[in-house]
Amino acid sequence: MLLSQLDPGTEALKFCLRISVAVTASALCLAALFNGRISKDRRQIAESEQRFRRAMEDSAIGIAVVGLDGRILQTNPAFAAMLGYSREEIEALTFFQITHPDDIQIGRETMAGLKAGTVNSFHFEKRYLRKDGTPVWAHLAGSVIRDERSGRPLYLVSQIEDIDARKQAEARIAEAETRWNFALAGAGQGVWDLDMRKGGTTYSETWGKMLGFEDGELDGDPNRWLTMIHPDDRETVAEADRAHLDGNTPYFEAEFRMRHRDGHWIWILDRGKAIERDEEGRLVRAIGSLTDITRRKEAEARLTVSAAMLADEKERLRVTLQSIGDAVICTDAANRVTFMNPVAEKLTGVAGGEALGKMLGHVYWAVDEETGHRIGVTRPAIGGQAPADQNSRAVLIRRDDTRCSIRQVVSPIINERNEFCGLVIVFQDFTDARALQRQLAHAAAHDALTGLANRSSFIRAMEDLVDQARKEGTSGKGSGHQFMFIDLDHFKLVNDTGGHAAGDALLKRVAEAIRGVLGPEDMVARLGGDEFAVILKSGSAAGAKIAARSIIDAIRGLDFAWDGRPHVIGASIGLAAIGASCGEVDEIIARADAACYAAKAAGRGCVSVAPDGDVMDDRMEPPEPLAAAS
């Protein structure tokens, strides 16, 4: 009876023991898992810290760990080297100690935001001080590291990039632009630029202010300026403008009245020149300047009523005033210098006081840019009243042998008795404009991809040779000039597989290969696509075939690969003579083209000759020994 009463309690005790064992086992398992997770997290943290340290050590950009009080807690070699410190030296400093005094305030607002929790990252530019005290511009970018639980900022991690070279370049550009604008404003000159490709005219800020308008307000319509001209002057100016646009005058120059925004009239001297035309001679671009000559015109009006005894001085003053803003030298009848303005002193390198009374050649020595011959500046013949002599190819040679390209205008001074009284030489530094003209001329005559002559310049050269051959009666059979038409074999496959970039790269290599086997006097051109042409300036038809074979060998031997894939191409060549009896240029090209077609039909990689209009195939032969070739 008693045992039966204890059985339920025993069972309950056993059940409790089983639960206790299970709980204990679970706790041990959880503890093991927790300890494993902690170990894993520690390893990951250690690995992360190691990667961070490695990145800091190897980074080419300065990296610094900075406390909230500005102390440099840790830095990398790049930042220390940037400022000329060792790591130990720079880590003993604060950011405030290495910051330029004028830039201390930069970043204070950012720092306040970081501490307040409103800013988590930052970037700005400021100057630091190297160890030797010299400043260096840097771009600072970084972020704040916060406590994960409280969000409290702990320290900053910053990247510091040296941008001193960029800042200095920007300062030089800004200084040059300031000087240019100051020079325009100081000379009272505005600049206009008519570009038909952009659809209108742009004006400098000085130009707009001259007429009371804001910068850019007048830009656009290329004909608007004509509507602002005084009605009495408009037709004369329009005629001068049309004459230059049609190519009948070398430059445009006119004096006229223009309406100011407030309604009054001002006198303008407008000078301009077309610097680019298309193949049909139509204007593409023109550049010029405007000068406010109102005061000069008023002075001329007053001088008109002056006494006859002041006529000589009046004329000299008129021409001098006309040249304000340019370099001016005046001489007397004996060619002695009587006046130099500051611009002339600067360009010649001779002070005005030293030049006065000296012969002109002692101060001003100009030569022709192409021939090197001196450009004479002399008085007109007796009884003759020579017009202004202009030269846009002049080069000024200074006493120290330095040179600058100039545009000069030489005007004689003739008094009312038709007597020669001296000269006024007006010249401008034209170096940059002439360099631009050369660049434009080169671009107009050369293929942009290969640098070879383009089709239009090549055709002109062919026409000149044909004309020369007719004058000299050269047949072109035995010697003289030979024309070579080259068409690449299997080039389309390169374009199809490698794309146009591969094709362009290969065309450059082909151009180099052709140029490399020819003489310096021979002319090479790219006619378009994968077609090339050569003018052999001297040599027989047999010599032309040898040259053609050399070109084929050079092209076939090009080691060209694109994206790891090699490409092999060839060339087929047609030859034709250039002579008095060979017909027009297009006929010669057509014969060579037909010969090239025959070479392709014969199996490619061949040379075909088309003498007297008949095409004969000449297949490639093995190279001959040097002795046999000679």
Automatic annotation (TrEMBL):
Residues in GGDEF domain copies: 479-612
Any Pfam family hit: PAS
PAC domain boundaries: 122-175, 252-305, 390-442
InterPro entries: Biofilm_reg_signaling (IPR052155), GGDEF_dom (IPR000160), Nucleotide_cyclase (IPR029787), PAC (IPR001610), PAS (IPR000014), PAS-assoc_C (IPR000700), PAS-like_dom_sf (IPR035965), PAS_fold (IPR013767)
CDD domains per UniProt: GGDEF (cd01949), PAS (cd00130)
Gene3D superfamilies: 3.30.70.270, PAS domain (3.30.450.20)
Top-level taxon of the source organism: Bacteria
GO biological process terms, semicolon-separated: regulation of DNA-templated transcription
UniProt domain PAS: residue ranges: 48-103, 176-248, 313-358
Protein name per Swiss-Prot or TrEMBL: Diguanylate cyclase (GGDEF)-like protein/PAS domain S-box-containing protein
Organism from which the protein derives: Mesorhizobium sangaii
Lineage, highest ranks first: Bacteria, Pseudomonadati, Pseudomonadota, Alphaproteobacteria, Hyphomicrobiales
